[in-house]
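Recap from last week: sequence in, structure out.
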Amino acid sequence: MTDRVLMGNEQEPTPAELALPRARPVVGRSGVARIWSLPLPVLVSLIVATCLAKYGVGRFVSWKYMYALAVHWRDPFSSSLFKPSTSYLLSSPTSALVSGLTGLSTRREFFALHFGLSLAAIALPVAMPSVRRDRYLRAIIGLVVVGGALPAVLLSWVGSYDPVSLGAATVGALADSPTIGAIGWALFGFNNSPEAILAFGAYALVSLYSEGPAALRSLAGCAAGLCVGIVGISALTSHWGGSTSRITMFRYWPFSAFWRSELNYWPLILYSALGIGWLIFLKREARVRKAARALCAVAVVASAAVPLVVLDQSRIVSGTLWAAALFAARDIAGSLSEEQLDGLLRRVTLPAFVFPVMLVWSGQIVYAGWQHGIEFIQSVV
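Predicted structure tokens:
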């Protein structure tokens, strides 16, 4: 990481001081921002509880197909549900395979597993070893989580494959070990290769603009892992008898469905790309960082281009940007002064915990709050 920015009359640290670990005992020196100094288990519980209060719990619209895959994982086409128009879901099988392989094959067990995976994917960014060591990094990552689209996507559509994809992206972006990071990208590529390719492109652009050629070695390992995952899912779907590609699925819908949805809801799609993260990355102190500027530029382009080829616009745009957003958040937390970070936390913490991120799906706004909870309970009981 780049050295922190020196402010005012601060003295340049000596080599001996630079060798010492950064001691940050207090985070957010006043007001609501002090919550970032809570013990990690309490903080994670608070983040998860806040997300549940903001979004409730809803079912994935295609959960029946994922459940059918969990039951018929040895031969998915033995289920009458899988046809050319729905077999594209076979290329995102990880959580359904886990459900089937572990014998969690009743509907209640299937939803319980996926609900647990959703909560774990929300908690994972703050709990990563590289994050929990530094309280300011933990706070910035926590803001990106609780104020972003991640919990909205994960809790609005329980039963989907998104917890695995977003959890894998988290590992790929925040792992200390290059090997573990490559494994994260491999899992992402295995579980949703089109989204993983887009996400890697966004992550690579932000990394290269921020770090230059120094990022190439790390990106090479990530790319290798991604390729392994893509080859793995291709081999599995071929063993099952093939699956319909998402490009083929694009042709099932008239193009007007895509551009009209984007035209009507583009400001909301743009907001959901980073959520409250826009307040972080566009702040004057953060904008001096190349990673923040690159992320904002990529987010604008992605929110304009991706909705022209997918109907679940907010879901895919935010997933595509997730790894890049974590990279930029890590860069900011490691480079700004403590005074700057404290000021940022004071201004952004309350909006992040209060304001929800509403999503756009096929020309509709997705946000039902606790109504989702009722639907979820009905599907489980």
